[in-house]
Amino acid sequence: MNSISGTINPANSGSHRLRTWGIKLIWLALAGVLLGFCYKEAVPRLYHPETRAGFRLGTIHGFLMPAALPSLLAGEDVPIFAANNTGRNYKLGYIAGINLCGLIFFGMAFRPQKEKKSEPSGPSPQ
Fold first, then answer.
1. How many domains does the chain fold into?
2. What pLDDT shows up at residue 63?
3. 8 Cβ neighbours under 8 A, 6+ residues apart
4. 124 is a domain residue
5. Structural domain includes residue 75
6. Which domain holds residue 71?
7. Is residue 83 a part of any domain in this protein?
8. What pLDDT is stored for residue 103 in this prediction?
9. Torsion angles phi and psi, residue 38, rounded to 5
10. In this structure, which long-range contacts are made by residues 76-81, counting pairs with CB atoms below 8 Å and at least 24 apart in sequence?
11. What are the 10-residue block averages of pLDDT along the chain, 126 residues in total?
């Protein structure tokens, strides 16, 4: 007796993978729009141009910089870099923040899914 439950149809596998990536991209776009809205609302409250930004603020600015993209695309002029900074320390923090954001945001969105191994149905051959 042949069991077809253990076989994988390549067409279904490809469409399933495409659907999974499509859903991930939609969630990524929605998260970007939400972050952009939050960024636009937070900038006037949290960004003070007279504050001299160091490594810590550089890391925070770098981490939040990708969240500015939706606001920038919508025509808002939001700051993504503190002009009044400490120099090299701020820039190192900024770069660390960008990399940390990429690691967390894109790493979680596009981590590989573990595939479930299907068990053949029926009695096992002995």
1. 1
2. 85
3. 118
4. no
5. yes
6. 17-109
7. yes
8. 85
9. -65, -40
10. 76/40, 78/39, 78/40, 78/43, 79/43, 79/47, 79/49
11. 52 78 84 73 73 88 81 79 91 93 76 62 57
